[in-house]
Specification:
Blueprint: H1 38-55, E1 59-61, E2 72-76, H2 85-97, E3 101-105, H3 115-121, E4 124-126, H4 129-138, E5 142-145, H5 170-178, E6 182-188, H6 190-193, E7 196-199, H7 201-207, E8 213-215, H8 216-221, E9 235-238, H9 255-279
Parallel strand pairs: 1-9, 2-5, 2-6, 3-4, 3-5
Antiparallel strand pairs: 6-9, 7-8
Helix pairs in contact: 1-2, 4-5, 5-9
Length: 285
């Protein structure tokens, strides 16, 4: 596949005799307004590609259902103590379709020293309705959200592939406002890549985080288990895009319709996951 067209360009080093460029010169950086750097994304893809292709051995079904132009809100099930699905989805779409994907995640990541900056440079955006609206409506980008929130990766292994409630359907209202389709993606494999055996609620409250997991990876690999995933085989199935016959940019939308649409998408994803699990012969092969 052809590499993704970069939005910025690197500039040759100036010779000493050349005058200094003004600080506002856009050529000085390829970082966009969201903090994403195409240089960092390119480096991340190069480093992550062997994991994607040889460790997770990712396969896609119906990838052509993702629009090749214009905005679209991608929604998927979310799992794994340290979720492995987001980078795999972003990598797969960017390498196969040559479209950038912005991953929407909890604002907590933005505030982490070093991690927050790297997360932004790699395409992460704080999950706020206005951020999603601008990406979708004004810039025509692909935005990836996980409606389960932290409840998804907070599940234990005994609860695997049982989707949690999709909040209050905020992602549906954003898609309506922005006038873009929702494209559901069912993910199988992430649950087994870093399964949570049990959680430590007291420590989570002390640290102010949603959950503190004890994973099978930690028991097997020790401290390295915080970063080492099991080689579960990943499968992705793209469902039919969901479009809404309502005008964009309305002041308000029917709450009952929003909730009904969110629940319909959740049910479709849940049934698709069950179908994929029935067809799966092995977690690893």
């Amino acid at each position: 596949m052809e590499p993704i067209r970069r939005q910025g360009a690197l500039v040759p080093l100036r010779r000493p005799e050349e005058p200094s460029a003004p600080l506002s010169d856009p050529r000085l950086s390829d970082v966009d307004e969201w903090g994403r750097s195409e240089h960092i994304r390119e480096l991340a893809r190069r480093l992550y590609d062997p994991i994607y292709r040889h460790w997770f051995r990712a396969e896609w079904e119906d990838l052509e259902k993702i629009p090749t132009e214009g905005g679209a809100l991608l929604v998927a099930n979310h799992a794994g103590a340290i979720p492995s699905d987001a980078p795999a989805i972003m990598h797969g779409i960017e390498t196969e379709l040559s479209r950038p994907v912005y991953g929407m995640a909890d604002h907590m990541f933005k505030g982490m020293p070093v991690v927050g900056t790297l997360w932004s440079r790699a395409g992460g955006v704080a999950a706020h309705p206005e951020n999603a609206y601008r990406l979708l409506r004004e810039q025509g980008q692909l935005a990836l959200v996980f409606p389960e929130g932290t409840k998804g990766p907070g599940k234990t292994y005994s609860e695997r592939y049982q989707l949690r409630r999709f909040g209050r359907g905020g992602f549906v209202e954003i898609a309506m406002r922005a006038g873009v389709p929702i494209v559901p993606i069912a993910v199988v494999g992430a649950e087994e890549s870093m399964p949570t055996l049990f959680k430590v609620p007291g420590l989570a409250r002390m640290l102010g985080v949603p959950y503190v997991p004890i994973t099978a990876n930690m028991l097997m690999f020790g401290p390295l288990g915080l970063l080492a995933y099991f080689p579960a085989k990943f499968r992705f199935r793209v469902l039919d895009p969901v479009r809404f016959d309502v005008p964009p940019d309305q002041e308000r939308y029917s709450k009952s319709r929003i909730m009904d649409a969110a629940e319909d998408i959740r049910v479709d994803l849940q049934e698709t996951l069950y179908d994929m699990l029935r067809q799966r012969r092995s977690v690893w092969f």
